[in-house]
Each structure stands twice: as C-alpha cells, then as structure tokens.
Write a structure and sequence with these properties.
alpha/beta; Rossmann fold; 9 helices; globular; binds NADP nicotinamide-adenine-dinucleotide phosphate
C-alpha cells in the first residue's frame, strides 16, 4: 500500500488522542476512514469535527474488548464499503498505581484493553484483510520494552501485545497481511485524556511535563507510513530510541534508572 487513497482503514480508539489525529490524517490523505470509541457521544462529536472540516468518516461505537461488538463493527464496515484494507489497533487505557494497592478488576480492565482490545479486532478482520493483502499496525509504548514500577498492568498488556505481533508475523507470513508494531514515546495528550485509578474508576489525567512530548500529528504520520511502507517494528523519537537501546544492551543502567528515578 504505497498510498492510502481510497483504502478502507479502521482506527480503534479514535474519538480522541493519537487515534483521532491518525484518523484525521488518513482522511486528509484520501482514505475511507472508520472511527471508533466506546462512548458514542464523544464519537459523534469527533464525527462532527470531521464533517466541519469537509472530511468524511464512518463512526462506529464499539467496545474492542468484546468479540461480539468487534464482529458487529466489522460487519458494518463490510456492509458499507465491501472491503477492509487496514486496521490500526490503537485503543487502550492508561493506569499508574502500585500493584499491591490495585484492585484485580482494574488490572484486568487495563490489561484487556491492550491485549484483547487488539486481538479481537484482528480476529474478526483477518479474512477481509487477507483478500486484499492488507495491513495491521499495533500501537505500543516504551512500556512494551521493559517493565516499569507502578505500570504493571500497562506494561504487561503492551508486552503481551509484542508476543502476539511476533506470532502473527510468522503464522500469517504467507497470507500477504502486513503486521507492524509501533512503540510510541511521550505524546502531547488531549486535555480530556483519562486514567484508570486503582479501583478501576476513570479519572482525568493530570498534565505532565511538556519537554519531551511529541505532537500527535507527527506520530499520526509515522503510524500511517508504517502501514504504507509495511515496516515491521519502530521506536519513535530520539528519546525512545535511546531508551530502547539501553533496555536491550545496557540492562544495569536501565535497572539503576528504574530503581532510582521512579517513585514507588
Ligand atoms: N499518550 C501517550 O503519551 C502514549 C504513549 C505511548 C503509547 N500510547 C498508546 O497510544 C494509544 C492511544 O493513546 P492516547 O493517549 O491517544 O489515548 P486516549 O487519549 O486516552 O484515547 C483513547 C481512545 O481509545 C478509546 N478506547 C479506550 N478503550 C476502548 C475500548 N475498550 N473500546 C473502544 N475504544 C476504546 C477511547 O474512547 P472511549 O473513552 O469512548 O472509549 C479514546 O478514543 C494507546 O494504546 C496508548 O497506550 C500513548
């Protein structure tokens, strides 16, 4: 896929944040984009933003951690467009808390959003993607490279996603489907970005230092390029690349950093 012009591409979790920026950029580049989120009011507002900019999209509210809702979403896409060329598995929840204080239900909510929230959309899309030699891009994080204190659910979900991506690449190597994995670093968040607290409740995420945050639009273009040029794995930003290098080749230094510079 050297161009996304006319391609039908689903971006999960695109009513807000990185997913929304990616969906906008896809629509600007001529893709027939499908936006998704759980909250139908927020999704509708995002659709209105598309409309007001003269961009079209199909909006489908669905919880990607439910296989039935994923199936119904793909059925609607096929009935509207007759095909699916790309899937960007982006939806996911954020949580920061000590493991021992965390309600197991909250842990499961976050873990499921990253793992099953990516596996289920793939499961119901495979046959359609295979017909057109389509593409899947999984959105991961630096948390998918090395376990961090206070992020056990988030890191576990993202690391399990790495294993799923690896398995798919080998298992489906003759299918013509591309599988990419993108590790994103710190991104400028929407003001209404939320966190899951240790009881599983949704709360507003406090602002974080802006120094090393990248614009969502820049990340969106990189995600789309991964799909277009069928790249396998990528770590975004100089800081991210340095972190990945240290995680792989300088483990004592990484351990020192995590032991001394992360509050527990
Ligand atoms: N922001 C960062 O700095 C950063 C860094 C590294 C990696 N990432 C990764 O990038 C991805 C997007 O992050 P973000 O910061 O843009 O997130 P965000 O602003 O919190 O937006 C999350 C989006 O996902 C949707 N969503 C959440 N759970 C869902 C579910 N079960 N089913 C369907 N939609 C769901 C939300 O809509 P509803 O609320 O309506 O469900 C929303 O549209 C995530 O996978 C995250 O881990 C982000």
């Amino acid at each position: 896929m050297k161009s996304v012009q006319g391609k039908v591409i689903l971006v999960t979790g695109s009513s807000r944040g990185i997913g929304k920026a990616t969906a906008f950029e896809l629509a600007k580049q001529g893709a027939r984009v499908v936006i998704n989120g759980k909250n139908s009011d927020r999704l509708q507002k995002t659709k209105e933003e598309f409309d007001s900019q003269g961009l079209s999209c199909l909006a489908i509210a669905a919880d990607v951690t439910s296989i039935d809702e994923c199936q119904s979403m793909i059925d609607q896409i096929i009935s509207n467009y007759g095909q699916l060329d790309g899937l960007i598995a982006n939806a996911g929840l954020t949580m920061e808390s000590n493991f021992e204080d965390t309600d197991p239900k909250a842990f499961k909510l976050v873990f499921d959003s990253h793992l099953y929230g990516s596996i289920y959309p793939v499961k119901v899309s495979l046959s359609h993607l295979e017909k057109v030699g389509g593409s899947v891009v999984f959105i991961s994080s630096l948390a998918g490279l090395y376990g961090m204190p206070r992020f056990s659910a988030y890191c576990s979900g993202k690391m399990a996603l790495t294993a799923f991506w690896q398995s798919m690449r080998f298992e489906k190597r003759r299918s013509g489907i591309h599988f990419g994995l993108m590790h994103i670093c710190f991104v400028k968040n929407d003001a209404e970005k939320t966190l899951i607290d240790l009881n599983g409740k949704t709360t507003l995420m406090p602002p974080r230092p802006t120094r090393i945050q990248q614009p969502q639009e820049k990340i969106a273009r990189k995600i789309i390029n991964m799909m277009k040029y069928r790249r396998n794995r990528q770590v975004i930003s100089a800081y991210g690349k340095l972190y990945a290098f240290i995680a792989r080749y300088c483990r004592p230094l990484m351990n020192f950093f995590l032991n001394n510079y992360f509050k527990t």
